[in-house]
Amino acid sequence: MARDYVGRKPAGNKRHSKKPTPPKRGFPVAAIVVLVVAIAAFVTVLWKINHSAKQPAPLPKAVVPKTAKPVTLKPLPKQPKAPDYITELENKQVTVKVPEQKKSTHQYQLQCASFRNREDAERFKAKVAFTGLSSQVKRSEGKSGVWFRVMLGPYPNRRAGDSDRHLLQRNGINGCQMWYWNNN
To answer: Where are the coiled-coil regions (predicted)?
Structure first.
C-alpha cells in the first residue's frame, strides 16, 4: 500500500503546524522625535557659529625706528642695445674639420643556423629568403666533423647586421649570432 507523504501534515510537531505571524508594527513616533531633535540641534549649532564669528583684528602697523636715515637710490644703468642676431647669423661662416675615418678591417656576419647535412641548410636558407634577405650556405670542417652554416653578410658595421637580425626576429627566426673577423 502506497502512502502519500507530500500532502501529509506532521503529527505531534507544533513547530510545523502553524507559521508564526510577524508582529504588527505601529507608527515609529520615537524615531521621528529623535530625528527632529537632532536636526534642531544641528541648525542651532550652525546658527551660533555663524553669529559668533568676529571681524578679524587689524594687523599691527609696522614700527619704523626714528633714527633711520633716508636712503638714496642710485639710478639704474642704461639698458644695453640688443644685437641683431639674425644678420649676424646670416653672415657667419663656420668651418668644421672632419677627420678621415679609416676603413675597418673587421667584417661582420650573421650565423643563423648550422646543420650536419646540406639539404637542411638549404631549407633554412629558403626560410630566410622569405624575409627578403639573401644568405649563403658555407661548408666548414672542424674537430666534430662537417657543418653547413647558414650565413648572412658581410656587413660593414655591427649596426647593419643588427638591423637584419631584428628583421629576422620579427619574422620568427631567432638565434642568429653576430660574428666578426679581421681581414689582415
So the answer is: none
Evaluate the CA torsion angle 110, 140, 148, 113 in order and state its sign: negative
Write out the residue range of the structural domain in which residue 124 sits.
106-182
| pLDDT at residue 66 tops 80 | no
Please, which residues have CB within 8 angstroms of residue 154's CB and are 6 or more apart in sequence? 107, 108, 109
Cell numbers for 14: 507544533
Helix, strand, coil shares of the chain, percent, nearest 5, are 35, 20, 50
Instruction: Provide the domain count of the chain.
Output: 1
- Residue 152's Cβ-count burial label (10 Å; 0-12, 13-18, 19+) is buried
- Considering only the C-alpha atoms of the chain, give the largest distance between any 2 of them, rounded to a whole number of Å: 128
Q: Is 126 contained in some domain?
A: yes
**For residue 13, is pLDDT > 60?**
no
What CATH number corresponds to the domain at position 176? 3.30.70.1070
Does residue 137 lie within any of the structural domains? yes
Q: How confident is the model at residue 79 (pLDDT cuts 50, 70, 90)?
A: confident
